[in-house]
Design brief:
Length: 79
């Protein structure tokens, strides 16, 4: 395509160069929003996933990007 958007380019640069995970995720969210608003991309599928976790298991980190789930700091709490 010939899609051209300086704002999308700016957000891509932020996502590529920021070391702050929160700032990167905000940039990715803004990119998705702009692409949909401009009808440059029309998503037709989004996978949903369901996870069940015992309430005694703590410290599990859930991510939308990267290793998921991350059990690096997981532990079990005794009843």
């Amino acid at each position: 395509g010939r899609y051209n958007s300086p704002e999308v380019d700016r957000q891509v640069a932020i996502a590529q160069n920021s070391i702050d995970p929160k700032e990167r995720m905000q940039a990715f969210a803004r990119i998705q929003q702009l692409l949909i608003e401009d009808a440059a991309m029309i998503p037709n599928f989004e996978r949903g996933t369901l996870f069940v976790q015992d309430p005694r298991l703590r410290g599990v980190v859930r991510r939308s990007v990267g290793t998921d789930p991350d059990f690096t700091n997981a532990y079990i709490v005794a009843d």
